[in-house]
Amino acid sequence: MSEPEDVSGLLARVALRDRDAFRTLYARTSGKLFGVTLRILGTRSEAEDALQDVFVKVWQRAAAFRPETASPMTWLITIARNTAIDAVRARRPGHKELDEAFELPDTAMTPEQSAINTDDGNRIEDCMRQLKPERADAVRRAYVEGESYGELAERLGVPLNTVRTWLRRSLLALRDCLRA
C-alpha cells in the first residue's frame, strides 16, 4: 500500500489534469478499490465496470479532495463504495419515476360503487333469509365456501342428486327474489 502523502500528492496532481499522476494513482489504488466494488457487487464484470466509473469520478472530482477532512484512501474508498451501491440500486427492478405513479389507475370502489355493493349484499342476505335454513346453509357452503356437492350430500345425509336439486331450486328462488 502506498503512503497517504503519496496518494494525496497524486490527487493534487490529478486535479491539475496530470495524466502521469492519474496512471500512477490507478496503479497504486485500483486493487483496493476493485476489492471494495467486488465485495458490494458480487460479480467481477460489474465490479470492473464500477471501477471504471470510480476513476472517471476521481478524474472529474480530484480538485474537490481536501486532505484536512479525510485521508486520501478514505475519500477514494467512499467514491468506490457509493458507485457500487448506485449500481446495485440501478439493477433492482421496479423502480419507477414518481410521475409514473400518477398514471396508475385507482382500483378502489367509488362511494357510489360501494353503496351499490353494500345494497346488493343486503338484498342477497334478505333473499337468503327467505330460503329454508338448511338450504341457505347449503348454498353458502357450496358457492361461498367452495364445498363440493358430494361433501354437502355426506354432511346432510342425503343423496347427491337431492343436493343438486336443492341447490338448483335455491338459486332459482334467489334469482326471482333479486329480480323483484
Write a structural description:
The protein is an all-alpha fold. The chain has nine helices and no strands. Helix 8 (149-156) crosses helix 9 (160-179). The longest helix has 23 residues, at 19-41.
- Strand elements, count: 0
Radius of gyration: 36 Å
Q: What order do the SSEs take from the amino end to the carboxyl end, as H and E?
A: HHHHHHHHH
Major sheet characteristics: none
Return residue spans where pLDDT drops below 50 for at least 5 consecutive residues.
none
* Average pLDDT: 86
Task: Quickly describe the structure.
The chain has about 180 residues and is mostly helical. The chain is about 75% helix and about 0% strand. The chain has helices at about 5-15, 20-40, 45-60, 70-90, 100, 110-130, 135-145, 150-155, 160-180.
Features:
180 residues; mainly alpha; 9 helices
Please describe the topology of this protein:
Blueprint: H1 4-15, H2 19-41, H3 44-61, H4 72-91, H5 98-101, H6 111-130, H7 133-143, H8 149-156, H9 160-179
Helix pairs in contact: 1-2, 2-3, 2-4, 3-4, 6-9, 7-9, 8-9
